Amino acid sequence: MTQPARDRVTDSRAPGGALIVLATAQFLVVLTTSIVNVALPAIGAGLGLSATGLAWTVNAYVLAFGSLLLLGGRLGDVFGRRRMFLAGTAVFAAGSVAAAAATTAPLLIAARAVQGVGAALLAPAALGLVFALFPPGAGRARALGVWGAVTGAGGAAGVLLSGVLTDVFGWRAVFAAGVVVAVPIAVATRPLVPRDRPGGGRIDLVGAVTVTGGLIAVTLALSGAGQHGWTSPRTIGVLALGIGLLAAFVVAQRRVAQPLVRLGVLRTGAVGPANVLMVLLGAAWLALFFFLPLYQQRVLGYSPVRAGLTQLPLALAVTAASTATPRLTHRASRRLLLTVALTAVAGGLAWLARVPVHGGFLTAVAGPSVLIGLGLGTAFVLLTDLSADGVPAADAGLAGGLINTTRQIGGAIGLAVLSTLAASAGSAGPAAPPAVLAAGYRAALIGAAVLTAVTAVLSLVLHPQPTNRKETV
After folding, report:
1. Which among 271, 275, 313 has a CA at the least distance from the CA of 469?
2. What are the beta bridge partners of residue 196?
3. Membrane-spanning residues where (predicted)?
4. At what angle do helices 271-294 and 367-386 cross, to 10 degrees?
């Protein structure tokens, strides 16, 4: 029999305050993924970054974060999630300080990687603590409604804050914001987040090296495919290396006594289907927050602050849907709600893909943004809940690491593929005519819409229904 979810919580503090702290940390992690997008032109001008350097300003964080999440989740299970949460917050704050103070491109890119390492430690620990503090039922549904709201809104808020901070204070403020949020999180953790009992055990070093190296190689290959070509020896070689390392990881997990990832967890409840769907949804989600600000600034001529402020309808829609979803699950099946939500995202992306060169905010952006936000808010809550379905309490950190990994790696892969699609259909260069730029962004958004439509169909085929098992996370 598995441990009850609360067995590893060693004091009885009310979970409401803890949820505020943990959800704020999740908001910060997601925020950091998108907060640099609007500021990239200013960063490039300030440090003299090339197009490749700008791409690495984004990719360094994505690579470190996505590739280390599984290890971060396991460290929380073994040594204590609260402890890893605090350690990750400290590392993240240090990376933010270094990024804000960076005077050269290598220093900025290295600092972004440090931010990613910190996020990989704190994100799965935070979600694991939420699973432990809120057993399956109405309480967890409400908690995950908050979680879904901050996850979805974090991407939109990153674009909004990026524009405002860049216009008012300069691009360094974009990174300093991470410190401003991380320090209060660390201070509030001690009085508000209950201690949890470390699970003990060992760290699977072979598994950690192979999965981390494999994910880095695959993401690196796909991120660079647009520049080097999909059939170039570099792309094929690095991709083959990544696939080989991931295959070695799977073999190793079947042979060690205490694996980094207990592969059987993917066959538990709805965990496997939820993670498959999150890979695909993550691809469309990250692409949206990458291409929409570019369209607004390069095609519609918006200033950074205006581009940021126009993300408010999307953020509000995500928040509203995430809050309402737990109540909706009492009236309709989760599979039906998930399919409807994914269909709404696909429809909103297709609507947004009708990108006119001289489109206005109300006619070209506001309507589809609301539809996408409603779908994203609902889907994030449902998939996060399903990702822990039937998982033993001892594996809560693993479940949190898995769902964060699939969203992040899915986003990196989707962005690589859709960026190449945009470049082939138009041009990613800022000097290109608006009509050419719009054609490229339109192709990318159509690709994201098709990808999300496929995800909606798979939500029916994969049957991601909860098991309602007791004494689990």
Report:
1. 271
2. 9
3. 20-47, 53-72, 84-109, 115-134, 146-165, 171-193, 205-223, 235-253, 274-295, 307-324, 336-353, 365-388, 409-429, 441-462
4. 150
